[in-house]
Amino acid sequence: MTVGGTVTLRLITDTPGTPAEALGPAAFEQLFNRAGSVLAILDAQARFVAVNAACERVLGCPPSELIGRSLLEHLHPHDPSSTVRSAAGSGGWQEGFVELLGRHRHADGSWRWLLWSGSSHEGRWYAAAKDVTEWIRLEQRAGRDPLTGLPNREVFLDELEHALARHARSELALAVLYLDLDGFARINETLGREVGDRLLGEAAERIRTAVRAGDIVARLAGDQFVALLELLDDDHEAVAVTRRVLAAFERPFEHDGAELVLRVSAGLTTARDAARGAGGMIREADIAMHRAKSAGRGRFTIFDSALRAEVDRRMIVERDLRGAFEAGSLEVRYQPIVSLADGSIAMLEALLRWTHPRWGVISPAEFVPLAEDNGLIVPIGEWVLEHALRSLAGWRAGGRELGVAVNLSPAQLGDDALVESVRRLLEQTGVPAHALCLEVTETVVLAEPIRAATRLAELRGLGVRIAFDDFGTGYSSMHHLSRLPVDLIKLDRAFIGALSRPGARRNRAVLIAVAAAARELRIDVVAEGIEDDEQLAEVRHAGCRFAQGHLFSGARAAAEITLEPFAAAAAEEIPAAPPPAA
User: Fold this and answer.
1) Full set of structural domains in the chain with CATH
2) Measured distance CA(344)–CA(161) in Å, rounded
3) How confident is the model at residue 335 (pLDDT cuts 50, 70, 90)?
4) Whole-number Å distance between alpha carbons of 401 and 432
5) Number of neighbours of residue 374 by Cβ within 10 angstroms
6) Local confidence band at 21 (pLDDT 50, 70, 90 cut-offs)
7) Most buried among 117, 209, 501, 545, by the most CB within 10 A?
8) Are 113 and 131 in contact (CB under 8 A)?
9) Are 524 and 487 in contact (CB under 8 A)?
């Protein structure tokens, strides 16, 4: 009998006296089409050659819609089995019994878990598929991660709560070890999620092997794992386990004959009572892990009293920052950017400052990242921009051709409302667009040059100028600058400070080359962090047209700005100004 057009099915029976041929073609057809499970034959490219009527009940589509199509088309993009992939790519199934579990798209758009099992013969796979969606859901509710077989977050939290209660009556300690795979996202992006899923499974097995018997390992989410270490005599035992886990990842993973290096960053926290709770311990271990990752990855950090004090301060600062903004306690100060041709103030950079009632002046390097994390940086940034433009409008009312520079955070640059906000504030304050210079760090821009170039071009379309801040600390690619809408680069103070350290001759040569290249690109150069006359002489010799630093003035309140020229900055000869950028 032929099903799906080309394949003949034979029924073999061992019932005494009942040869298969005696059952007739109808029996074959009834067996194939009335089976409760999906029955199918797939060719060497994983295409359906034959499939029974059960597919319509399970997947919502008739057999005619599957014949000739690949199984891969129906699998969830995160689930494709390596067995199927290899079959589709190599032109043949491996001989023997094959199983795979994956999600298949139903005709109504939902996903159903199917468990395929069958044998291959002469390049074809003869298989049956059972709908196990409800089994998977029950297993997930039971607390198992289907990819690694490890307990999930809910189960781990429950186990940790019980462990804390047990240890409260004991002199022994317990520990939580938080693990994150370094560079895993890159593997997913370059090699695909199928390879990534396989590596997650292998990583889970390495972690389980490295910890002690009886320790609980769970998968929290993505490439993050956590381990519960109980019955510890002291912290040294937990550290020893952590070192074994890190050592387990020193051996490369293998993929298609090549070696993949995948390290792990870890955070460790210990407790002898239940005071912090399960959630608190996981947060502590997570914080310690991120500290380890920021310190260079492939290492671990212990959550100790110093880190606890830092976290407590961070929480207070973050809370009080919102209150300070809402109460109007933040302040904008201005630092002059001086023309080296005549010592006049060409622009004033708007700088955000905050004096905390408990800790005094808090550096922007501390509170600005917190504002970026909690989303407060966008409204704060708009407030700074408005304050700067209104101050500039007052200064320009006296007849001075003056500009103002305002920093943009990554969150602001990614905000779709930014361009319209800048347009509105320019109109409200009456400041001409060319008097506003928006500063972005080159590392942020060059990390996503296409997206950034589009947004910067929109801003430049308003007539505002664009500056790269902290130039010399990131990519520092003049090639990128030639392709981006940039009017000005600000050489980082660390770049300038290197002029007085060993190797200054080489640093001077780089400075001269950068300034010369910028002139060719019609980009102005500002030397930041000028502290003494020697540095001023160096940047003047290099051909920088503008300078900024405490040699001239620190950041001051708007009312303290006098706009008087700085005689010490004036020079008799300065390279000609570049023509306006195109």
Assistant:
1) 2-136 (3.30.450.20), 143-303 (3.30.70.270), 337-348+377-568 (3.20.20.450)
2) 66
3) very high
4) 10
5) 12
6) low
7) 545
8) yes
9) yes
Question: Could you tell me the pTM of the whole model?
Answer: 0.60
What φ, ψ does residue 255 adopt, rounded to 5°? -150, 120
3-state SS class at 161: helix
Specify the pLDDT at position 582.
38
pLDDT of residue 501: 67
Residue 40 sits at φ, ψ, to 5 deg, of -155, 155
Cβ burial of 9 (10 Å; 0-12, 13-18, 19+) is middle
CB 415 within 8 A of CB 378: yes
Residues 6+ apart with CB under 8 A from 94: 83, 86, 87, 120
Identify the CA nearest to 423 among candidates 380, 464, 395. Answer: 464
Q: What is the pLDDT of residue 10?
A: 44
- What confidence tens digit (pLDDT) does each residue in 48-76 have? 998 988 888 888 888 888 898 888 777 87
Task: Extract the tokens encoding 309.
Answer: 């004090």
Indicate whether 324 pLDDT > 50.
yes
Confidence of residue 217 (pLDDT cuts 50, 70, 90): very high
DSSP H or E segment with residue 2: strand 2-3
Task: Show the tokens assigned to 205.
Answer: 């097995």
Look at residue 458 in the predicted model and tell me its pLDDT: 94
Does residue 207 contact residue 248 with C-beta atoms inside 8 Å?
A: yes
d(CA 67, CA 99): 21
Q: How many CB atoms neighbour CB 96 within 10 A?
A: 8
Measure the N-to-C terminal CA separation of the chain; round to a whole number of Å.
Answer: 76
H/E/C letters for each residue in 367-389?
HHHHHHHCCCHHHHHHHHHHHHH
Least confident of 390-404, 407-421, 467-481, 498-512: 467-481
Angle at the Cα of 380 from the Cα atoms of 377 and 382, rounded to 5 degrees: 110
CA distance 73 to 102: 12
CA 85 to chain centre: 28
CB of 35 closer than 8 Å to CB of 54: yes
Residue 391 identity (one-letter amino acid): S
With left for phi above 0 and alpha for psi between -120 and 50, is residue 242 left, alpha or beta? Answer: alpha
* pLDDT at residue 450, rounded to an integer: 77
